[in-house]
Amino acid sequence: MTNTKFNLNVKKLGSVLAICLMIGLALLAAGCSEKGNETAGGTETPTATETSEFSEPVKIGYVLWDGEIASTNVMQQVLKKAGYKNVEITAVDAGPLYQELADGQFDFTTSAWLPYTHKHYWEVYGDKLDSVQTNLEGCKIGLVVPSYVPINSIEELNSEKDKFGGKIIGIEPGAGIMQASETAISDYGLEMELVPGSSAAMTASLKKALDSKEWIVVTLWSPHWAFNRWDLKYLDDPKGSYGDADHVETVARLGLKEEKPNLYGILTRFKWTHDDIQTVMMDIENGTAPETAAAKWVENNPQKVNEWIGKE
Description:
Layout: H1 2-36, H2 48-55, E1 58-62, H3 66-82, E2 87-91, H4 94-102, E3 108-114, H5 119-125, E4 129-146, E5 167-169, H6 176-188, E6 193-195, H7 199-211, E7 218-222, H8 226-229, E8 232-234, E9 246-253, H9 256-259, H10 261-269, H11 274-285, H12 290-300, H13 302-309
Parallel strand pairs: 1-2, 5-6
Antiparallel strand pairs: 3-9, 4-7, 4-8, 4-9
Helix pairs in contact: 3-11, 3-12, 11-12
């Protein structure tokens, strides 16, 4: 009889201990879950959705203009600093840039020159794109000559065309400034040939002419490092073929805001000045790799970068 009571008491005690153990484990799990949402400093860590966003590739398209090389590389460095693991940048001509944004092959670009330079592309693709934010104000395009050339207006080019070799030195054929230059040739009845090439070839031709004090007219835009290095001037455009000053916009594919909200937030805050971008461009022109020049600027401007990222 005594053994039977003892056995019953042991079984009851075992049940109580088992229940207590289960309750303790549940409380421990709850505590770990709460702590898992906090860092050592007491701030919340990213949710599963946010973590997924940071691990997904970010694809940025851009055109091979010196300013857009600078801005795109800076944005790549900023996103890496913000925690994005894979930030891809791809250079294309303006037409494919807008087409691939509309098709969702790029997440965004910081290279949209509007409302004039890329007007044609916006008319074709604008309803399939998301205009996020203006990132740079007061951007001009036009025909540029060395300051020692005595003419001051596009209207005067025909009278001096022989001194220019009958040529206007341009850049990539698909660039908006090339389309505007074709318009200028028509508007002013210019008897000159617009020579396509590349941005690098254009600045090389400009340097060669400046070194020998020759006459040259090129397609150029601001901001550009050439204005820091040489004494240049825009030719007046009384017919308005090149439009008023552009601004540069950050443009995203449709759906980015919903799919990558943290990234989209950074894009809404990204805005800088001519001095900012000129600093990066000059470093690149002086031989620094674009990625290195961008990383240097990011390191030297922590307050602005933190504002873009959204840190207090």
